[in-house]
């Protein structure tokens, strides 16, 4: 009997090859041909699943986003139950700081994509900003829940604070990649901003 092809697995395999290529040589150097060589498959197969390089790059970003989201969920699962809203937001910013290979590659790839999209119309057409928008909505929902439960000061705007925290973590991530900050220092700064959002600690904020 012919072997059943797992198309999702093949797409993930190709996306992982692009991630490795971009992390090693830079996103600008990643081509459909070099990704095919890295994946050990034919160029025709890469083109079958991803018609353009822009589409392949965007798919790789989504692939990394899914991995990051799983890691965030793992951080949440490791918290004492029930976890306070402050602790859950701390878990979010901790995941956003590039302090290991996976998170560094994710931040580097997204930043490189954004820079290249400024001059490449094909990349600019990709909805790559949808990832940060999804994160901002998730963070807004979490802060809205905290606001309703009284864990967030009444004068705080959940949507505005979510935008601020996301911008802060993106900036800190770039500083880590360039070596201006260590991951540990970036986590301290990110935690400071989270505490500014929630105000004075209470005995239940673990």
UniProtKB/TrEMBL annotation:
<dbReference type="InterPro" id="IPR036271">
    <property type="entry name" value="Tet_transcr_reg_TetR-rel_C_sf"/>
</dbReference>
<dbReference type="Pfam" id="PF00440">
    <property type="entry name" value="TetR_N"/>
</dbReference>
<keyword id="KW-0678">Repressor</keyword>
<dbReference type="InterPro" id="IPR039538">
    <property type="entry name" value="BetI_C"/>
</dbReference>
<keyword id="KW-0238">DNA-binding</keyword>
<feature type="domain" description="HTH tetR-type">
    <location>
        <begin position="8"/>
        <end position="68"/>
    </location>
</feature>
<feature type="DNA-binding region" description="H-T-H motif">
    <location>
        <begin position="31"/>
        <end position="50"/>
    </location>
</feature>
<dbReference type="InterPro" id="IPR009057">
    <property type="entry name" value="Homeodomain-like_sf"/>
</dbReference>
<dbReference type="Pfam" id="PF13977">
    <property type="entry name" value="TetR_C_6"/>
</dbReference>
<protein>
    <submittedName>
        <fullName>TetR/AcrR family transcriptional regulator</fullName>
    </submittedName>
</protein>
<keyword id="KW-0804">Transcription</keyword>
<dbReference type="InterPro" id="IPR001647">
    <property type="entry name" value="HTH_TetR"/>
</dbReference>
<keyword id="KW-0805">Transcription regulation</keyword>
<dbReference type="InterPro" id="IPR050109">
    <property type="entry name" value="HTH-type_TetR-like_transc_reg"/>
</dbReference>
